[in-house]
Amino acid sequence: MALSYKARKRWSLVILLIGMPAYVVACVTVLNWLDRPPFWLEIFVYLILGILWALPFKFVFKGIGQEDPDASK
Fold first, then answer.
1. Where are the bilayer-spanning segments (predicted)?
2. I need a surface site. Which of 1, 20, 32, 49 has the fewest CB within 10 A?
3. Cβ atoms 21, 40 nearer than 8 A
4. H or E element in which residue 59 lies
């Protein structure tokens, strides 16, 4: 089942306004449990986690910045 443009736009806002801050807090908490790792490891972990959050939501964000394809012209 494909999401409509309007639904994808709404879900993208929910993900960015609620999900992203929660994910950032979770990532920082996990890194704090590591008891201040070396700088290069910390940067590497943040880079990997920064990419990983977007992969499951790729289909939601695809085409959101463009005009509604279903809108009548």
1. 12-33, 39-57
2. 1
3. no
4. helix 58-61
To which residue do tokens 């008891």 refer?
A: 35
> Which distant-in-sequence residues (6+ apart) come within 8 Å of 48 by Cβ?
none
Tell me how far CA of residue 6 lies from CA of 11, 14, 54, 58, 67, in angstroms.
Answer: 9, 13, 20, 16, 11
DSSP state of 54: T
CA dist 39 to 27, 30, 31, 35, Å? 15, 15, 11, 12
Distance CA 60, CA 3 (A): 8
pLDDT digits (tens, 9 = 90+) for 16-53: 999 999 999 988 888 888 888 888 988 888 899 888 88
φ, ψ for residue 68 (rounded to 5)?
-65, 115
Which amino acid, 27?
C
